[in-house]
Amino acid sequence: MLAERCLQQIKVFNRDTNVIGDTFSKASKHYRKYSELQDRCSNKLKNAIELSGQILDLGAGPGTHYNTAAKNVVCVDIALGMLKELQTNFPDYKAINGDAAKLPLQGESVDSVISNLALQWCDDFSAVTAELHRILKPEGEVAISLVAANSLPELSKLGLKANQFNTVSEFQAAFENNFWSELECQVRREIIYFDDLKSLLYSIKGVGASAIKAVEQNHQNQSLKGKKHWFRLVEQAELLRTDKGLPLTYNIVQIKAKKLG
């Protein structure tokens, strides 16, 4: 059964950078098919910042259209597969393979940074904000969206456990020092609805965020195998159904900050 194989193939996400890059690379070909959340957050993020000058799209994935000269857009991503898709979709963008905590860019070389649902995978978020400060020009701006703690509560109700993300206060604290001004932080819920459980699970795996592991109700690990177990999960999922479909809820934090001049 296709859905059953999906469950069996979902991996525990190891935050080693090579593993992260490989996992997202494998999802690059079909990323757009499952990117409703990413597209929704990207549109809101672009409306939050007036991009100008040299722009950095950090964790760019397969690429995003910006209303600016393509030659002014630099895209950094840890996944080579994503960068290959990006170069096909946006051949005039400059694509660079790199780590957000060790950006391969010169200091004070960027006017604006935008990053959509990527940096929550970084172990040391403070190291990332330090790099953003280093590469931004004085009074340069950054706008980022991140998946925060308390996301995906529906998975817990199904006996599935996702990796834990930083809290909103932890993300915000990384910007609260003497290096940044005009800090804005917004928190919102984004709910995506699905026709069935298979589609819900594939929405996570399909964008490369294979971060689920199975646990029993008593929190002892078990494997997701067998048709009976799958049918039981389907029955449990139906108890969550609304008139819009099966919900999957994300806690999104959107942060905008300006580097002190």
Can you offer a commentary on this structure?
There is one protein chain. This protein has 261 residues and is α/β, with parallel strands linked by helices. It contains nine helices and nine strands. The protein has helices spanning 2-9, 17-26, 36-48, 80-89, 125-135, 153-157, 168-173, 197-205, 227-238, and strands at 55-58, 73-77, 94-97, 110-116, 136-147, 160-162, 180-194, 212-214, 246-259. Strand 4 (110-116), helix 5 (125-135) and strand 5 (136-147) form a beta-alpha-beta unit. The longest helix has 13 residues, at 36-48.
Question: Major sheet: size, sense and barrel closure?
Answer: 7 strands, mixed
Strand order of the largest sheet: 3-2-1-4-5-9-7
Number of strands: 9
Uncertain spans, ≥5 residues at pLDDT below 50? 1-15, 211-224
Could you report the average pLDDT, rounded to the nearest whole number? Answer: 83
Multimeric status of the protein: single chain
